[in-house]
Amino acid sequence: MAFPTKNLSFPLIFFMLLLAWGDCTVVRIKNDIGQGNKLTVHCQSGDDNLGKHVIPFGGEWDFTFSNNWRPWPWGSTTLFHCSFSWQREFKRFDIYNATRDFDCEDCQWSITPDGPCGDMLTPYVYSLCYPWD
Ligand SMILES: *[C@@H]1O[C@H](CO)[C@@H](O)[C@H](O)[C@H]1NC(C)=O
Questions:
Q1: Into which family does the record put it (predicted)?
Q2: Of 44, 50, 80, 131, which is most buried, counting CB atoms within 10 Å of its CB?
Q3: How many whole angstroms from 101 Cα to the centroid of ligand 1?
């Protein structure tokens, strides 16, 4: 009996694409340190070093990455950790942790001297402030 390759190829390719497809996630970082303070941000994951970025007070910098797709409830394992420096301060925080951030796709952070406050805009909406790591 011949294996029905032709009939199977479309769903098979579709399924493989679905596995390879990553959600696109945007992480936005806003400088809310205080008037006149520039914020230097340096973010990295296991695969990517995004370099240093200087954000003026009130300004925003963002990065986008393609998330590795994992079926519920495992979620993505991508982790981005950042350092934040202004004046004589030097702090660290994991800016993207899918478990903590409910797999956010639009993750907006306000960086204050006390720590980062996250506004997760999609797929679940919530706001929470964290202490520095
Ligand atoms: C991500 O966040 C979860 C929940 O807060 C925590 O248990 C886990 O250790 C964090 N992952 C890493 C790699 O830090």
A1: Belongs to the plant self-incompatibility (S1) protein family.
A2: 80
A3: 10
Cα(77) to centroid of ligand 1, in Å? 10
Please give the residue range of the domain that contains residue 33: 14-129
CA distance 127 to 17: 33
CATH code (residue 49):
2.60.40.10
Number of domains in the chain: 1
Handedness of CA 111, 115, 119, 124 (dihedral sign): positive
In a domain, 28, yes or no: yes
Reported as a single tens digit per residue, the pLDDT across 56-111 is 999 999 999 987 666 556 667 889 999 999 999 999 999 999 889 988 999 999 99
Is the residue at 27 inside a domain?
A: yes
CA-nearest residue, atom 10 of ligand 1? 97
Report pTM: 0.82
Phi, psi of 73 (to 5 degrees): -100, 20
Residue 94 forms part of a structural domain = yes
The predicted-structure confidence for 24-52, as pLDDT tens digits, reads as follows 899 999 999 999 999 999 999 998 999 99
Q: What are phi and psi of 116, to 5 degrees?
A: -85, 140
